[in-house]
Amino acid sequence: MITAKAKKGERKREIAAKATELFRTKGYAATSMRDLAKAMEIEAASLYSHIKSKEELLHGICFRMADTFFAAQKEAASPELSATEQLENAIVAHVKVITDDVAASAVFFNEWRHLSADPLAEFKKLRDEYEAIFRAILAAGMQESEFRTQSVNFTTLTLFSAMNVIYTWYQPEGSKTPEEIGREISRLLIYGLKD
Amino acid sequence: MITAKAKKGERKREIAAKATELFRTKGYAATSMRDLAKAMEIEAASLYSHIKSKEELLHGICFRMADTFFAAQKEAASPELSATEQLENAIVAHVKVITDDVAASAVFFNEWRHLSADPLAEFKKLRDEYEAIFRAILAAGMQESEFRTQSVNFTTLTLFSAMNVIYTWYQPEGSKTPEEIGREISRLLIYGLKD
DNA sequence: AATTTTTGCTAACGAACGTTAGGTTGTATA
DNA sequence: TATACAACCTAACGTTCGTTAGCAAAAATT
After folding, report:
1. Chain B nearest-CA residue for A195
2. Contact (Cβ atoms closer than 8 angstroms) between residue A158 and residue B162
3. Which pTM was predicted?
4. Chain A 18-77, residues with CB within 8 Å of chain B CB atoms
């Protein structure tokens, strides 16, 4: 039983990994179960020995990523630091999650809207909660005049868009580490192009 | 003939507008011609009196937007200005195009990958050419030490992601004009949060 | 008044979709 | 060695997909 348990669900993870790749390149709606089956070199019907539905795959990717993002923030949080340092830490943590799995990140950012009503609502709630972490840091920094005062909402969205585009170009073999990328984004956002 | 010519293709434009809305909210692949027909309050087959195919709609949206972006840059270009001013002008021009039609922008940014091979290749070429405009301004600014030297590629992508997220929250009735939004992004990117 | 054009319909096509049912095989556990 | 189960198969289901054919009414043009 021990060996069996160790291997339990391994095939399912392989399928999830291939699905992530396909959802990333073709999009969830444009990826058919037959596409996925072909990539796995089995028949479409065989997929259902391992998964319950197509949406289960999307659900798994989106919510696993959400968990990972939250966990990273929890670990990176240091309320005693300055807003600038808190922001930098939060950015680096966020970037690391993205670079850790760019395919899953792409699906997380672009395909969540294809979740059905209930998971969709839950997903949005989590997303708002997560955004609130950054919003709070920015608001605190402006309160204490550490940051120039401007719309927190606008700044948060700009910050996220700057971070969340990374999955489109990051390569593990590239010249920059996730840490360096995070620092660079921090610097660009905090000090600007002129500094 | 004058009246006829003036109204020629009007229905087609109505269909294109509705398609843009649907492609934006549901995505191209997840939007069926029957969805579109229902939104137009006609039968699906009737759509084909006005259009050739579903892809023609996507093609129209993507390439019309591409043209508009290029035209805006051409008008905004002032080679005699400093890199900082050139960049600010280019950003404002880009933002104005987005705010002018947020639905079409959303489709332009997210759904182009569903174009078939030939138009897809053409689209990517245009996209690269357009990006090169900004890339050149940034490179010139760094050359003349007007901007801090760092990866042009990284900076360009960050800049675009900051601009291209606007369609997700911009409202014409909102408190900020497109011009103000453009200036704000410029300021954030050029001078940073601290300035 | 005759005509062309626009706009829409019903009916249907073949293909692809997600998924289920029921069965076979090989491997690991008891 | 008997048993359980993971892994995959073929066949097929009902549905939806983009699209075509052929026709009818209405509106605009001549």
Report:
1. B148
2. yes
3. 0.94
4. 26-27, 29-30
Of A150, A162, A195, which is closest to B162 when you measure between CB atoms?
A162
Cβ of residue B19 lies below 7 Å from strand D: no
The gap between the terminal CA atoms of chain A, to the nearest Å, is 61
> pLDDT 10s per residue in chain A (195 long)?
333 444 678 999 999 999 999 999 999 999 999 999 999 999 999 999 999 999 999 999 999 999 999 999 999 999 999 999 999 999 999 999 999 999 999 999 999 999 999 999 999 999 999 999 999 999 999 999 999 999 999 999 999 999 999 999 999 998 899 999 999 999 999 998 887
Contact, A20 vs A107, CB < 8 A? yes
Question: What is the DSSP secondary structure assignment for residue A135, as one 8-state letter?
Answer: H
For every residue of A4-61, DSSP letters joined together read HHHHTTHHHHHHHHHHHHHHHHH-TTT--HHHHHHHHTS-GGGGGGT-S-HHHHHHHH
